[in-house]
C-alpha cells in the first residue's frame, strides 16, 4: 500500500477529513520550498501538492499565475522540483507528495525519464491538468507500473462518461473542482457540489478531494462534508506572496492550523 492509500485509510479509520495544501515549487524563493513543505506537515497537512511552474498555467487564476512567474524567474524547473522532493524525503518518509502541473515540462523531460526520476525522488502521485484520461493511457500505465498514482480532475461540467473514464484509471484520489472557473474563484454552489460528488462516489471507491475556491476555515468545513479531503492552494500562495520573509512560515502555519482545527471539529460533530 502506497503513502496516499495509507493516509486515506488512516483518515477513514479515525473519522477525519484530509487536508491537502498546494504550493508552487520555487515560490517565493527556491530556498523556501522545502522548509514550507515541512511547515505544512507540522501544522496538520496530510498530503502536499507541489506545483510545477509553467509559463502558461491556463487552469490557474492570477495568484498562482504570479507564483509560476516568480518561480520561473528564480530559475525553477522540473528537475529542481524533483530534487526538492528528494530533499524533503531525507527527513520525511510518511507524507505523500503529489506533483501538479502541465504536460509540456513532463513531455520535454520525456515521460519515461520523468516517471523514473519521480519514483526515485519519492513522489507519490502526479496530476497533469491538461492530460484528459482518454489521451494519456501510456502515461497512466507507466505511473501505475512505477507505483505512482495518476490523479485526474473532475468538474461541475464533467459528463457521466467522463466520470466513468476517470473512475477507471485514477488512483490515490480524484480531484473534484468545486466550481466553474480558475483557481482562486469563489461562489461555490454547495448543493451542486453535494449532488455531483454523490454521483462520483457511485462510480468509484477512490477517495475524493475537493479544491478551488476554498479560502478559509468556514468554506473548508462546509465542503469537507462532501469529500474525503479538501485542497487549498490560492490562499496559501497569497500568504507566501504577501508575508514578509521573517513572517512567512509562521503565517502559513497559523493558517493551516486554523483549517486543520476546523476540519477536526467538523469531524467530531458528525461522528
Note down, in words, how this protein is organized.
- With 271 residues, the protein is α/β, with parallel strands linked by helices.
- It is 50% helix and 14% strand.
- The chain has helices spanning 3-14, 33-42, 62-73, 78-89, 103-109, 111-121, 137-145, 160-169, 190-201, 217-224, 234-242, 248-270; strands spanning 18-24, 48-51, 97-101, 125-128, 149-151, 153-154, 174-177, 208-211, 229-232.
- It has a 9-stranded parallel sheet.
- Helix 9 (190-201) links the parallel strand 7 (174-177) and strand 8.
- Helix 2 (33-42) packs across helix 4 (78-89), helix 4 runs parallel beside helix 6 (111-121) and helix 10 runs parallel beside helix 12.
- The chain is globular, with a radius of gyration of 17 Å.
- Residues 181-185 have low confidence and may be disordered.
Tell me the span between the first and last alpha carbons: 26 Å
Shape type: globular
Estimate the mean pLDDT confidence: 91
* Domain unit count: 1
- CATH fold topology: TIM Barrel
| H-E order | HEHEHHEHHEHEEHEHEHEHH
Radius of gyration: 17 Å
Structural class: alpha/beta
Beta strands, count: 9
Oligomer, anyone? Answer: single chain
Residue ranges: pLDDT <50 for 5 or more in a row? 181-185
Q: Report the total helices.
A: 12
Which percent range fits the helix content?
40-55%
User: Can you identify the CATH class?
Assistant: Alpha Beta
The CATH architecture would be: Alpha-Beta Barrel
CATH homology group: Aldolase class I
Main pleated sheet: 9 strands, parallel
Our estimate of the beta-strand percent is: 5-15%
Q: Biggest sheet, strands in spatial order?
A: 5-4-3-2-1-9-8-7-6
Amino acid at each position: 500500500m502506497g503513502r496516499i492509500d495509507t493516509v486515506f485509510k488512516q483518515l477513514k479509520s479515525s473519522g477525519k477529513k484530509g487536508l491537502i495544501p498546494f504550493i508552487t515549487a520555487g515560490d517565493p524563493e527556491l530556498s523556501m520550498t522545502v522548509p514550507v513543505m515541512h511547515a505544512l506537515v507540522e501544522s496538520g497537512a496530510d498530503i502536499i501538492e507541489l506545483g510545477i511552474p509553467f509559463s502558461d498555467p491556463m487552469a490557474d487564476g492570477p495568484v498562482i499565475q504570479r507564483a509560476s512567474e516568480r518561480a520561473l524567474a528564480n530559475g525553477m524547473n522540473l528537475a529542481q522540483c524533483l530534487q526538492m522532493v528528494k530533499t524533503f524525503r531525507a527527513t520525511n518518509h510518511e507524507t505523500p507528495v503529489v506533483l501538479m502541473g502541465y504536460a509540456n515540462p513532463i513531455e520535454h523531460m520525456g515521460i519515461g525519464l520523468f516517471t523514473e526520476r519521480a519514483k526515485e525522488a519519492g513522489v507519490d502521485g502526479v496530476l497533469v491538468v491538461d492530460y484528459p484520461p482518454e489521451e494519456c493511457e501510456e502515461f497512466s500505465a507507466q505511473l501505475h507500473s512505477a507505483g505512482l498514482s495518476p490523479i485526474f480532475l473532475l468538474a461541475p461540467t464533467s459528463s457521466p462518461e467522463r466520470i466513468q473514464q476517470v473512475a477507471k484509471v485514477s488512483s490515490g484520489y480524484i480531484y473534484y473542482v468545486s466550481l466553474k472557473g480558475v483557481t482562486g474563484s469563489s461562489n461555490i454552489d454547495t448543493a451542486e457540489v453535494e449532488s455531483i460528488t454523490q454521483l462520483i462516489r457511485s462510480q468509484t471507491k477512490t477517495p475524493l478531494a475537493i479544491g478551488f475556491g476554498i479560502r478559509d476555515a468556514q468554506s473548508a468545513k462546509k465542503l469537507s462534508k462532501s469529500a474525503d479531503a479538501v485542497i487549498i492552494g490560492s490562499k496559501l500562495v497569497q500568504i507566501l506572496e504577501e508575508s514578509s520573509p521573517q513572517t512567512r512560515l509562521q503565517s502559513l502555519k497559523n493558517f493551516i492550523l486554523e483549517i486543520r482545527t476546523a476540519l477536526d471539529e467538523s469531524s467530531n460533530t458528525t461522528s
